[in-house]
Amino acid sequence: MAEQDLIATARETIEAFNASDWDRLRALLNEDSVYNELGTQRQFQGPDAFVEIMQGWRAAFPDVEGTVTNAIASGNTVALEISWQGTHTGPLESPGGTIPASGKALVMSTQVIVFEGNKVKENRQYFDSLTLLQQMGVVLAAQEQA
Predict the structure, then answer these.
(1) Between 77 and 129, where is the model more confident?
(2) Which end of the chain is more exposed for a tag (fewer CB within 10 A), N or C?
(3) pLDDT confidence bin for 145, thresholds 50/70/90
(4) Does 54 map to a domain?
(5) Do the Cβ atoms of 105 and 86 come closer than 8 Å?
(6) Which CATH number characterizes residue 61's domain?
(7) Is residue 140 domain-resident?
């Protein structure tokens, strides 16, 4: 698949998330796809687990929308710079437990998507979990603590 086609498919994963179109998202994934959330050190295998974690993010941030601000491809890998904007109005499941809704807004992240053929083989979600927790008011920024 041409690099521009891979970029279009990678963008489609974001569009499917934005529309809460879980069937469309699932259709873009390989049966053995892996989702790595490096900020939380969580890993999920398979399309159903991938969609379930995306539904969890949607439940915690019902109005969240991702805007791709930059995309590059090399071989079978695409990097997307994404501005996610939304409000934390639902509980967020995390490795440390459930974070109750804070009502605060957030902005974050970058994804690296590896393809096998025309489907997503691996999605590596890079976000700064400390900044996310600060944006939600769970952790105070250093200047706020002083």
Answers:
(1) 77
(2) C
(3) low
(4) yes
(5) yes
(6) 3.10.450.50
(7) no
